[in-house]
Amino acid sequence: MAKHMKILEYCLSSLMRRKYKNLALVAVFSVVVAVLASILFLTGALKEEAGGLFIDAPQIVVQRLMGGRHDLIPTAYAEKIKAIPGVGRVTPRYWGYYFDPISEGNFTLIGVGGEVGALRLLKGKMPAESGQCAVGKGVADARFTGAGGDIHMSLSRDNSLNLKVVGVFDSASALLTNDLVVLPVEDVVRFFGMPEGSATDLSVEVFNDAETPTIVKKIRLMLPNTRPITRAEIMRTYDAVFQWRSGITLTMFAGALLAFCILAWDRAAGLSAEEKREIGILKAVGWETNDVLELKSWEGAAISLTSFLTGVIAAYVHVFYMGASIFEPALKGWSVLFPKFGLTPHIGLYEVGVIFFLTVAPYTAATVIPSWKAAVTDPDAVMRA
Questions:
Q1: Which ranges of 165-230 does DSSP label H, i.e. alpha helix?
Q2: Is the pLDDT of residue 87 over 80?
Q3: pLDDT confidence bin for 92, thresholds 50/70/90
Q4: For residues 178 and 215, what is the distance between their CA atoms, to the nearest angstrom?
């Protein structure tokens, strides 16, 4: 143990002798780790947020297709679907999008009679009569209003709404409610000019989740002009979107990754003349090859682990305390009313393991391999070289 402690002590003194070079190396290494970690942490956290949206989402959403596009669905389809064994409630949902020229953002309008998920009001109440609404925090901030205030929306001279804001709400995930305006069904129908007996889509409850694929097939056979979408399919789509966006973001920073690869290759290509001479002197004074390898392993591990921890901590602060300002537009989207919410910290062993094996392991190996080549060479030849 004393021998190993002496080797570690010599390792630290050796690093301090080249402190400026090593500090520059740690700085570059830490930036690379921070970039990788920020993208992986932000992607994982957004997946967790998106997963929280769908805990209370409908098991099946049925849409009507017209020319391959989403169209209004007859509410009479609800009775046909409800007749399928294993199906519970079938609820028509009334919702749509409204582009607000004042904030230049899109609002999502949804009728109170539809399924709006588990909403938790921050202040006020849900709308109980025509002319009332509850809005998300993003809408309230964009329109400089709140509980007790007013909001006006207009599609044309005949399609306009003057609403009294009776509540500003939030939910377990800000992704769900930030751009939302909840109002009575009759106001949504009148505002969008929906014909009587039509809805935006249908929410289908299934008693047994295992029967969901079978019920989807029956709906397609019964109503071939519809598109049933399961909750699992929506979640898979969100996962795919975030994976794709994280890949695009990593591609944007390919230059930084390439710089790290060049750095690691430079370390693997060989030691400097000073480092080779140091190894030759150590061998000449009685150090064994294993001792030299242990010394260089400690040096590589000290630099790579310091950079790894510094980069991971920097990425954690950047993502979960600074809102991931660098990568937020690429991974979240460019919506004007996209919520400014604090991500719930979520770091899995997978993300940490990927970062570790992409950075620490290659660099440590790249440090040890050339050291081994110098250590097995005759000390006199090494010092002469």
A1: 174-177, 185-192, 212-222
A2: yes
A3: very high
A4: 33
Q: Which two tokens stand for residue 51?
A: 């997963």
The Cα-based distances of 125 to 136, 170, 190 in angstroms read: 12, 12, 23
Distance CA 200, CA 61 (A): 10
Q: Which residue has the tokens 């409204």?
A: 98
Q: Is the pLDDT of residue 368 over 80?
A: no
Spell out the residues 6+ positions from residue 229 whose beta carbon is closer than 8 angstroms to its own.
60, 61, 62, 63
Closest CA to 186 of 133, 116, 125: 133
C-alpha closest to that of 141 among 161, 122, 162: 122
Between 260-264, 315-319, 361-365, the lowest mean confidence (pLDDT) is in 260-264
Query: In angstroms, what CA-CA distances link 158 with 10, 193, 332, 345?
Result: 83, 10, 36, 47
Please choose, from the candidates 236, 223, 238, the residue with its C-alpha nearest in 3D space to the C-alpha of residue 87: 223
Instruction: List C-alpha distances in Å: 154 to 13, 21, 159, 185.
Output: 72, 64, 6, 17
What pLDDT band is residue 178 in, cutting at 50, 70 and 90?
A: confident
d(CA 133, CA 183): 5
- Cα distance from N-terminal residue to C-terminal residue, the chain: 34
CA distances from 180 to 56, 102, 264 (A): 17, 16, 49
Spatial distance between the Cα atoms of 18 and 4, rounded to a whole number of angstroms: 22
